């Protein structure tokens, strides 16, 4: 038993070089790849396939989307919301990331906690919290009325405003963290050198710090935009009928209508846009890295 | 460190003006950031007090305090059932993702894997594909396989979503490891298997802890796929929360939210502390 085990171990794990031999590598990576193919690639592939094979090859579902003003409006709204949320998170994230590079000790710990605690809090919890804050008799309306800024409660919930606020909140940490990471890698001597050569604070920022942080900005923008396109929970809970997004539409088509070909076409569209963006950004970032080295 | 106090007399006025504008800029930056931090923390700060409210409807701040919604949560078999089910799914998902993810990371970093780029793409894909697409695709196929609302279905789906985190974290741990440590063990007469068990695996401890905590929290928090895979009888905590937020908004949701926040923060805080200590030890 032990001898045969040792023999088996010897064939799998020859002490040649520093790498595992191919048989052992395959044994280690095999279950992972097979499992992912069955549980992930197969379902996604099937969903994409039903969008064009029904039962013969057809592009009818895509034509259906392209010819429907309603679906085009939903698509446009999803993209526009993605752009708005990305821009808002960028504007809010940059100062925070910049400040965090100057903090240390407990101040940095507190700032990091402010960024990470929301990140670790469920999207459902945060949607619920925004309902408490934005509802008719909610916190924000009480504050606004208390300050005399408005006489009657404003309709803040179940519309585009509440979806934008809640999604900006959910995605803000995804923008702060990569920008912070990029800003941290800038050597402290560089801004100081620019300063000693006579550049004022604005020039130091715009000519030295900002350009060097662009890779972080790019990955933050990519991550936030992609995540925002596929958002399901937040628009469904804090949005209203006029904030129907692509993800919500896909959900409706499946659970309520069991219209798999149409859901598949929408999923293909969403996935296609996502992959295109990832490829474009990767190329851009890759070129950036090459230029830097 | 620059010191404006020692600047030459001729430049004093300019320097003072420079310092003033710098101080103003700093104050402005800090003020703006304080508001953004408030924005980030506001939902958490609102949910926790709401869970101690005494009223049926949602009011903030609560007029009276009580633990009645905590009692309601712990006495409601549906909430407790969903909670226990989610914990079971998260536990099994963590075990599955850690096992297959670690094996895969070892092969990808240390082994000879044909088509390495393709394998890596397959492993990382669940991170890029929008969750709504994964959710609907699995809903369609799992319906045929009779896996909707089943423990197997949830663990399978959540393992797919957690695997990229595990593979990335463990791979990073392996890549950062100093190979001379293993070589030292080998030169002292340890076999490769022994060196691996007594040197490599213990050194990967912090990476394992981080990956496992991430997998557990990701599974517990996962809302979209769980929503589609749940049945009317077997549902995760996130599906139950989704339904209640959508239909009745009772303060019980605040109780569940508070418990989730406390648990996530404790778990992730512990991991963060562990990682910081490991980083210090490496530097020392």
Automatic annotation (TrEMBL), chain A:
Q: Which stretches make up the ABC transmembrane type-1 domain?
A: 75-281
Can you tell which superkingdom this protein's organism belongs to?
Bacteria
User: Which keywords does UniProt give here?
Assistant: Cell membrane, Membrane, Transmembrane, Transmembrane helix, Transport
Which subcellular locations apply to this protein?
Cell membrane
Family (UniProt): Belongs to the binding-protein-dependent transport system permease family. CysTW subfamily.
Organism field = Azospirillum endophyticum
PROSITE patterns linked to this entry: ABC_TM1
What's the protein name? ABC transporter permease
Q: Could you tell me which SUPFAM superfamilies the record lists for this protein?
A: MetI-like
* Annotated TM spans: 20-42, 79-100, 106-126, 164-183, 204-233, 262-285
Cross-referenced Gene3D superfamilies: MetI-like (1.10.3720.10)
CDD domains in the record: TM_PBP2
Recorded topology in the membrane:
Multi-pass membrane protein
Output the lineage of the source organism.
Answer: Bacteria, Pseudomonadati, Pseudomonadota, Alphaproteobacteria, Rhodospirillales
From TrEMBL, chain B:
Which UniProt keyword terms apply here? Cell inner membrane, Cell membrane, Membrane, Transmembrane, Transmembrane helix, Transport
Cellular compartment(s): Cell inner membrane; Cell membrane
Domain of life where this protein originates: Bacteria
TM segments? 27-48, 89-109, 121-142, 154-174, 201-229, 249-271
* InterPro entries named in the record: MetI-like, MetI-like_sf
Membrane topology summary: Multi-pass membrane protein
Presence of the UniProt keyword Membrane in the record:
yes
Establish whether keyword Transmembrane is in the entry.
yes
Query: Pfam families, per this entry?
Result: BPD_transp_1 (PF00528)
Domain ABC transmembrane type-1, residue spans? 83-272
Which PROSITE patterns is this protein grouped with?
ABC_TM1
Coiled coil regions in record: none
The record's similarity note reads: Belongs to the binding-protein-dependent transport system permease family.
**PANTHER family from the UniProt entry:** INNER MEMBRANE ABC TRANSPORTER PERMEASE PROTEIN YDCV
Protein's name according to its UniProt entry: ABC transporter permease
| Organism annotation | Azospirillum endophyticum
């Amino acid at each position: 038993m032990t001898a045969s085990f040792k023999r088996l171990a010897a064939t799998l794990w020859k002490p040649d070089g520093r790498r595992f031999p191919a048989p052992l590598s395959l044994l280690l990576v095999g279950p992972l790849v097979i499992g992912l193919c069955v549980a992930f690639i197969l379902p996604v592939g099937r969903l994409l396939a039903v969008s064009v094979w029904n039962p013969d090859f057809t592009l009818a579902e895509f034509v259906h989307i392209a010819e429907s003003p309603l679906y085009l409006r939903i698509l446009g709204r999803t993209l526009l919301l993605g752009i708005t949320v990305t821009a808002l998170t960028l504007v809010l994230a940059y100062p925070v990331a910049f400040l965090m590079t100057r903090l240390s000790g407990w101040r940095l710990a507190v700032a990091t906690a402010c960024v990470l605690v929301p990140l670790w809090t469920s999207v459902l919890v945060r949607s619920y919290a925004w309902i408490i804050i934005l509802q008719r008799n909610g916190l924000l309306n009480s504050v606004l009325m208390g300050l005399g800024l408005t006489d009657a409660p404003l309709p803040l919930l179940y519309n585009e405003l509440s979806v934008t606020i809640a999604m900006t909140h959910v995605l803000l940490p995804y923008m702060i963290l990569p920008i912070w990471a990029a800003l941290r890698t800038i050597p402290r001597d560089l801004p100081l050198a620019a300063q000693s050569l006579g550049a004022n604070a604005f020039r130091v920022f715009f000519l030295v710090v900002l350009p060097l942080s662009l890779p972080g900005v790019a990955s933050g923008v990519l991550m936030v935009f992609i995540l925002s396109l596929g958002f399901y929970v937040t628009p469904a809970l804090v949005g209203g009928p006029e904030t129907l997004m692509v993800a919500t539409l896909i959900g409706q088509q499946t659970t309520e209508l069991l219209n798999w070909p149409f859901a598949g076409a929408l999923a293909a569209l969403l996935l296609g846009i996502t992959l295109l963006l990832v490829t474009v950004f990767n190329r851009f970032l890759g070129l950036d890295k090459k230029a830097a080295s | 460190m620059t010191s404006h106090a020692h600047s030459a007399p001729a430049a004093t006025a300019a320097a003072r003006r420079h310092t003033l504008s710098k101080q103003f800029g700093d104050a402005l930056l800090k003020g703006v950031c304080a508001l953004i931090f408030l924005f980030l923390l506001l939902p958490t700060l609102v949910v926790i007090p709401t869970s101690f409210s005494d009223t049926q409807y949602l009011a903030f701040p609560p007029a009276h305090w009580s633990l009645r919604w905590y009692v309601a949560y712990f006495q409601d078999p549906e909430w407790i059932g969903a909670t226990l089910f989610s914990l079971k799914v998260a536990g099994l998902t963590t075990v599955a993702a850690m096992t297959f993810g670690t094996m895969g990371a070892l092969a990808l970093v240390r082994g000879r894997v044909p088509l390495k780029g393709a394998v890596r793409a397959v492993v990382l894909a669940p991170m890029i594909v929008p969750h709504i697409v994964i959710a609907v695709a699995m809903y369609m196929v799992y319906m045929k396989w009779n896996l909707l609302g089943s423990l197997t279905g949830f663990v399978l789906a959540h393992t797919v979503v957690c695997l990229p985190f595990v593979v990335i974290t463990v791979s990073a741990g392996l890549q950062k490891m100093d190979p001379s440590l293993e070589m030292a063990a080998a030169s002292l007469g340890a076999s490769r298997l022994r060196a691996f068990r007594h040197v490599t695996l213990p050194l990967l401890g912090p990476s394992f802890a981080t990956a496992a905590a991430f997998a557990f929290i990701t599974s517990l928090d996962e809302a979209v796929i769980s929503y589609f895979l749940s049945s009317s009888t077997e549902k995760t905590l996130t599906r139950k929360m989704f339904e209640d937020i959508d239909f009745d908004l009772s303060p019980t949701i605040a109780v569940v939210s508070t418990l989730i926040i406390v648990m996530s923060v404790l778990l992730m805080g512990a991991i963060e502390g562990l990682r910081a200590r490991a980083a210090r030890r490496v530097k020392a």
